[in-house]
Amino acid sequence: MKQSIFKFKALALSAVFAGIAFSGAVQANGAKDGTMSMPDYKQWDTFLSGIEKKSGHIRDIYINDIGAKAQKGQPFANGTVTVMEIYGASGTAGSMTKGELQKVFVMYKNAGNGKHAPAGLQTGDWTYSAFDGKGNKLDTGYDGCRSCHLPLTTADYIFHYDKYFANR
Ligand code: HEC
To answer: How many CA atoms lie within 13 A of 6 on its CB side?
Structure first.
């Protein structure tokens, strides 16, 4: 079943306002990799931006309101969504110039998400989705995403966790 992030977000918020433990409300569903809709993330807080890659890319990372409320040393709350834009880039390290948006990678955390992970590749309750620069879903597998993020057990599977909190 396809679930929209916004549906989950609305559910989470209404549950919080109603004072209901929202984990129970969404646990039965649990999103699978590749099922998220493209979030409308441009107004979100910046997690980290201008990350230059030797491969000729620049990455900008955003986080939604729920994620931005996280405290140093804590995992991100259920309902957190983080989005990484991957731009083509030219020039040399330290002074690269952004080109076209090539890909948008999304991680979404919610209760029950992790139970859909392939054996040995569970990264908490995070799921992964990927889009091209125009917002179309990428036809890709997600085990690769999981393998790379898997070792980050002390940072809630988020790269630059420390850098993010150091900047706040
Ligand atoms: C080769 C390792 C690797 C793979 C594969 C990978 N990532 Fe990541 N991911 C990273 C690194 C490293 C960062 C931090 C940004 C940077 O320094 O380039 C990151 C950052 C992210 C972020 C921002 C949150 C954070 O952890 O900082 C999201 C969202 C994300 N990746 C999603 C995905 C998705 C979705 C896939 C699969 C389609 C994927 N990643 C595959 C290494 C990987």
So the answer is: 5
Evaluate if residue 9 carries a pLDDT over 70. no
> Pocket of ligand 1, candidates 149, 158, 161: which has the most ligand atoms within 8 Å of its Cβ, to mutate?
149
Count of structural domains within the chain? 1
Q: Which two tokens stand for residue 111?
A: 């209760």
Query: In b/e form, how buried is each residue of 15-39, taking b as 16+ CB within 10 angstroms?
Result: beeeeeebeebbbebbbbbbbbbbb
Q: What is the CATH number of the domain that holds 78?
A: 3.50.70.20
Token pair listed for 65: 């309101």
Distance, CA of 83 to CA of 60 (rounded, Å): 8
pTM above 0.90, yes or no: no
Which domain does 13 fall in, by range?
Answer: 5-166
Q: What is the arithmetic mean of pLDDT over 80-87?
A: 98
| Cα 69 from chain centroid (whole Å) | 15
Pocket of ligand 1, beta carbon within 6 A: 51, 53, 59, 61, 82-84, 105-107, 128, 130, 140, 142, 144-145, 148-149, 158-160
* Nearest-angstrom CA–CA distance, 1 and 34: 11
For residue 63, what are the β-bridge partners?
A: 45, 82
Nearest residue to 100 (alpha-carbon basis) of 113, 82, 84, 85: 85
